[in-house]
Design a protein that fits this description.
The structure holds two protein chains of two kinds.
Chain A lengths: L5 H19 L4 H21 L1 H4 L5 E8 L4 E7 L1 H24 L7 H19 L3 H19 L6 H32 L4 H6 L1 H6 L3 H15 L8 H4 L5 H10 L3 H14 L3 H23 L4 H22 L2 H32 L15 H15 L5 H15 L4 H30 L16 H19 L1 H4 L1 H12 L17 H26 L11 H23 L5 H22 L13 H20 L4 H21 L3 H22 L14 H30 L7 H12 L4 H9 L1 H23 L12 H12 L7 H6 L1 H24 L7 H19 L1 H7 L4 H21 L9 E6 L3 E6 H43 L1
Antiparallel strand pairs in A: 1-2, 3-4
Helix pairs in contact in A: 1-2, 1-5, 2-4, 2-5, 4-5, 4-12, 4-16, 4-20, 4-22, 5-6, 6-7, 7-10, 10-13, 12-16, 13-15, 13-16, 14-15, 14-19, 15-16, 15-19, 16-17, 16-18, 16-20, 16-22, 17-19, 17-20, 18-19, 18-20, 18-23, 19-23, 25-29, 26-27, 27-28, 28-36, 28-39, 30-31, 31-32, 32-38, 32-39, 35-36, ...
Chain B lengths: L1 H19 L4 H22 L23 H32 L12
Helix pairs in contact in B: 1-2, 2-3
The chains are: A mainly alpha, B mainly alpha.
Subcellular location (chain A): Cell membrane; Membrane
Keywords (chain A): Antiport, Cell membrane, Ion transport, Membrane, Transmembrane, Transmembrane helix, Transport
Membrane topology (chain A): Multi-pass membrane protein
């Protein structure tokens, strides 16, 4: 495989695998594991294959054009730094996959779990491989989303849900800040391309918007990497299954923040603001995290606070601003990922076997699980920074960095003291973790008899511990080249500072600091042992709970404030709200009309007397409908139909036959629909309280408002019509309808070809509305008094059934005998007419919409004439399937063009000579129109039939429904 | 022509708005229907009114100016269909509300008429 398409392959693999894993559903727990591990290993292999391309600071770029005109392309960029992250993501992903197979409960099918994990892996790869910063933010938010879903994987637990929500709010809030920051950055640089941005460091730092940009991007990085004061979400995220904690919340996702810091260090770093904010935040997080970790009682809690502290250490290293600091930061990212992931897995194994994670209830497990104990001991020692393990090396580099920084005597001393103190705390909690679980007495109250976890749970821990050991003993051999590649990618090939990866540098100050930290840590553990067992929260800082503050803020923002606004808002009721909306529109319209002159001289138009007469009728209908709608619904409906017909005639008058046809048919269908609904509306209550003064006032007020709106709309319409029409895009459509769309009917060509995507959206809306109507009516409960059949129907049924040999529904057949027969004979003709409208639609007035409504009118006429039971016994009426079929057809036609390498919904046409029919223009747009047609038939029929069926099923269910209604 | 149509749009809109502000659901649904007529005519009229112009291309494609503006027509055509869908949806919502609350007031409670 050529290198050029490898990046996109690596990125696509996990997402494809995620879909596959999700499709597995309940089948194949092992298959899902294989998918996860296999994908991760394959990604790892492919990434390793890329190594030659990225050594020495080079970067591999792959560009997949998407919207080049907008500067939006999918840019994948793999340099040494991204490559190192890819190894981490894929390598630890594979191990976590194996581990999770044995860790997760046996009755969980795991398909969803691995699908989410794979999707997360893809998103994380997306972050590190992005060559465009907007794309980076997109994947950044995806990781937040999948982290949310994974923390809440066991969603029956309240703590999982709360933790997931908190993580989502914090990290995606930070993601929004990051987006804003990145947009500012793009504004400053003039491009969103990472390479261009990385080259424009000086311009960015000198720009007036540097500080806001920096702050926004840092907010994104700090929330993701759990830096103080946003650290509180990470301990709460520990309700996630342990493999998730190991993978997302120690090894990869929380590293995205520091990844970003290192990535943007050449652009944003090196200023005072960077030093103070990043360095200061890192320092605070380092010491507070380590301090809090000492006093945690929960195994995963210790590891979570320790992770916070180590992330603080990395942040501080980047913040110090030297090139060597960046090298040390990258080195520590890798080291921390290895030892912390293995520790999480060990903690999970303990939880799995002993049934508790509470340090107070654990002890002496080394007797039951010696292998796990040994591995945890190695990883714990790496966390404490014991020599010959990887943690020691990066800590040495960190100490050297704190010693080398020169920022005034007080600050230098302070940072050295804090570094040693935090390191001592780290030693203390590491000892506490290992000793508390594996050594000492076995408590009598262990929930379970512990034993060694399954082999394949130990193997991943073992491999990671081995990595800690190998890096610790032979750093230059094992990690040297990769670290060099990563560091030179960030710093530039020639800018690499001299550093030495060796276990022994002689007796140096950093070594002495290490020894000091070690001694202090041991001493601290011995002297505070009693406190650890009894304290519930860390002294001093324990009272300030980020979680509590977060919850209080959320309560105010998400509950109190909206409630207060809602109470203050004029009304909860619809009627005043509608009034407000109309008034607002009126005010806005008046303001617009008075402030912006039209810029042309108004003139009188000619008045066609016939047209005026037509609209006199129309206006009478409209006003009549308005006055009758309260007490005479049928009359109002008829009058509305009259107004509709008049506007239909106007369409014909004004050269729009397509519109006239559609309007006419829609008019018919709407009227039938509302007629079907009338039956369920309440009767007029005679002799209700006489009209009061307030009612009269309201009526007058509304009359004034309505008149004002009418006048406004009329003058606006007049102004718009008299305004000289500028050259619009209509010309484009007229010129190309035939040459490019292959049709004479421009309106139809616009609908199915030029603006096919809009039409696809519209038929989707239609389908959704029809299904909503259907769903609402399935649970429909009519008011008690309209449950019984109407009086006339009852009378007729009784009469119809009275004769000898007659059934109840014979009254209907008698009643509509002749119209029924005519309709039955005409229905096929109407359908044929509909098909005719459809077929000619591309060249003459007609098309999918009109044809669809025509066919559904034929169907509903049959329903009316013959009754639902008769129709459904003789025809297969499956509107829901029709809707689905139509949508598939329309979307499928659109997708078809992709197969020919054209964009979605590109149409194709040619004239075909057929026997009998002669020459026919055949365009792929006709297939699309067929989809529109089928959707319209399905949706219209579904809505009408669903409503019509209410009358059919109620009488049979009436007693049961009535009983329910009373209950 | 334009004057008549503008007045017609105004009257349709006024009747619709008046009904929109009424308390009964059926009045509101009729009001919305009338408003949608007004809006459809308004959008249609934006491109200028033409009588006797060709709506369909002839084979011997002559002057572009002899044809009507197809764009507002295409817009209104889908608007008519979508308008039908929303009317249907609103009708069902009002029927459901009538079933649940026992009355046909837009606020679900029969306080004042």
């Amino acid at each position: 495989m050529p290198d050029a398409i490898l990046p996109s392959t690596i990125l696509a693999l996990p997402f494809v695998a995620a879909v596959l894993a999700w499709l597995l559903r309940s089948r194949g727990r092992n298959l899902a594991v294989w998918l996860m591990t296999g994908t991760a290993l394959l990604g790892l292999l492919l990434a390793l294959w890329l190594y030659p391309a990225i050594t020495g600071g080079g970067a591999l770029r792959q560009l997949i054009p998407w919207a080049p005109g907008l500067g939006l392309d999918l840019v994948l960029r793999v340099d040494g730094f991204a490559w190192l992250f890819m190894l981490l993501i894929c390598g630890i992903g594979a191990l976590v996959g194996i581990y999770a197979r044995y860790y997760m409960p046996a009755d969980d099918p795991l398909a969803r779990f691995f699908a989410l994990l794979l999707a997360f892996m893809g998103s994380m790869l997306g972050i590190v491989m992005s060559g465009n910063v907007l794309q980076l933010v997109f994947f950044w938010e995806l990781t937040s989303l999948f982290s949310f879903l994974l923390i809440g994987y066991w969603h029956h637990g309240a703590s999982a849900r709360d933790g997931a929500r908190m993580a989502l709010v914090v990290t995606s809030g930070g993601g929004l800040c990051l987006l804003a920051g990145v947009l500012l950055l793009g504004h400053i640089v003039g491009s969103y391309d990472l390479d261009v941005i990385l080259a424009a460091g000086d311009a960015v730092r000198a720009h007036a918007l540097y500080l806001p940009t920096l702050l926004l991007i840092l907010l994104g990085a700090f929330t993701k990497s759990a830096q103080f004061p946003f650290h509180f979400w990470l301990p709460q995220a520990m309700s996630a299954p342990t493999p998730v904690s190991a993978y997302l919340h120690s090894a990869t996702m929380v590293k995205a923040g520091v990844f970003l810091l290192v990535r943007f260090w050449p652009v944003l770093g090196g200023t005072d603001a960077w030093f103070w904010i990043v360095g200061g935040t890192g320092l605070l997080t380092l010491v507070l995290g380590a301090y809090a970790a000492m006093f945690e009682q929960d195994l995963k809690g210790v590891l979570a606070y320790s992770t916070i502290s180590h992330l603080g250490l990395i942040t501080m290293l980047v913040g110090l601003g030297s090139a060597l600091g960046v090298v040390a930061a990258i080195f520590h990212i890798v080291n921390h990922a290895t030892f912390k992931a293995s520790l999480f897995m060990a903690a999970g194994a303990v939880d799995h076997e002993a049934g508790t994670r509470d340090l107070r209830k654990l002890g002496g497990l080394r007797r039951f699980m010696p292998v796990t104990a040994t591995l945890a001991l190695i990883a714990g020692a790496a966390m404490a920074g014991v020599p010959l393990l990887n943690g020691f090396l990066s800590k040495e580099m960190f100490f050297a960095e704190t010693l080398a920084s020169r920022n005034g005597p007080l600050l230098d001393v302070l940072s050295v003291v804090i570094a040693v103190a935090a390191s001592a705390f780290g030693v203390t909690y590491s000892i506490r973790f290992v000793r508390g679980v594996f050594f000492g007495r076995v408590p009598a109250t262990l929930p379970r008899e512990p034993h060694e976890p399954p082999l394949w749970m130990r193997v991943p821990i073992g491999l990671l511990a081995l990595a800690c050991l190998l890096v610790g003993v032979l750093p230059a051999r094992v990690i040297g080249p990769s670290l060099r590649a990563a560091a030179s990618a960030v710093l530039g090939a020639g800018q690499l500072p001299p550093y030495s990866l060796a276990v022994w540098h002689g007796v140096t100050t950093p070594l002495l600091m290490s020894v000091l930290a070690f001694g202090a840590g041991c001493l601290l553990f011995v002297s505070l042992r009693r406190c650890f067992a009894t304290l519930e929260a860390a002294p001093l800082t324990g009272r300030f709970s980020g979680k509590r503050i977060f919850e209080r803020v959320m309560a105010v923002v998400a509950a109190d404030l909206p409630q207060r606004i809602e109470r203050r808002y004029p009304s909860r009721r619809l009627q005043p709200q509608l009034l407000l909306i109309v008034l607002l529109a009126l005010v806005a319209g008046t303001l617009a009309a008075t402030s912006a002159p039209f810029g042309f001289q108004p003139r009188w138009s000619s008045v066609d007397p016939a047209f005026a007469l037509l609209w006199l009728l129309g206006a009478a209908c409209a006003i009549g409908a308005a006055s009758q709608a309260k007490f005479h619904r049928l009359a109002a409906l008829v009058l509305t139909g009259g107004a509709g017909l008049v506007s239909c005639v106007s369409f014909v008058w004004l050269s729009a036959p397509d519109l006239a046809a559609t309007q006419l048919l829609v008019e018919v269908v709407t009227t039938i629909l509302i007629l079907l609904g009338l039956r369920w509306l309440p009767k007029r209550i005679e002799g209700l309280a006489a009209e009061s003064r307030t009612h009269r006032f309201r009526r007058r007020r509304d009359m004034v408002i309505a008149t004002a709106v009418g006048l406004g709309v009329a003058s606006l319409a007049y102004a718009a019509m008299m305004h000289p029409v500028a050259d619009s895009i209509s010309r484009f459509f007229l010129e190309r309808a035939y040459t490019e769309g292959g049709g004479h009917n421009v309106v139809n060509v616009i609908l199915v070809d030029f603006r096919g995507f809009d039409t696809l959206g519209e038929i989707s809306v239609l389908a959704i509305v029809a299904l909503t109507v259907f769903a609402l009516l399935r649970r429909f409960r009519p008011a008690a008094e309209s449950i019984n059949a109407p009086a006339q129907q009852r009378l007729q049924t009784a009469l119809g059934a009275s004769g000898p040999g007659r059934a109840a529904d014979h009254s209907l057949t008698d009643y509509l005998m002749i119209p029924g027969l005519i309709i039955q004979l005409m229905a096929p003709v109407i359908v044929l007419f509909g098909l005719h409208l459809f077929l000619r639609g591309h060249d003459l007035p007609g098309g999918g919409f009109v044809a669809g409504i025509t066919v559904s009118v034929a169907l509903i006429l049959l329903y009316m004439a013959r009754g639902a039971r008769w129709v459904e016994a003789h025809l297969r009426v499956l509107p829901v399937r029709w809707i689905g079929l139509g949508l598939l057809l329309a979307a499928g036609t659109g997708l078809g063009s992709l197969a020919f390498g054209r964009p979605f919904l590109t149409s194709y046409f040619r004239h075909v000579e057929l026997p009998v029919l002669g020459e026919l223009p055949l365009a792929s747009a006709v297939l699309f129109d067929l989809g529109v047609f089928v959707v319209v038939v399905g949706a219209t029929t579904l809505m009408l039939i669903a409503l019509a069926h209410q009358s059919l099923r109620r009488p049979r269910q009436a007693p049961a429904t009535a009983a329910e209604g009373e209950g | 022509m334009e004057l008549v149509l503008a007045a017609a749009i105004g009257i349709l809109a006024a009747s619709g708005v008046w009904l929109l502000l009424r308390p009964r659901t059926f009045q509101v649904i009729i009001g919305l229907t009338l408003i949608s007529y007004a809006v459809n005519l308004f959008i249609f009229s934006i491109g200028g009114l033409r009588t006797g112009a060709d709506p369909v291309l002839r084979d011997a494609a002559g002057d572009i100016a002899q044809y009507t503006d197809p764009l507002p027509q295409a817009l209104v055509l889908t608007a008519i269909v979508i308008g039908f869908a929303t009317t249907a949806l609103f009708l069902v919502v009002l029927l459901t509300s009538r079933g649940l609350t026992g009355n046909d007031h837009v606020d679900g409670e029969d306080g004042s008429a």
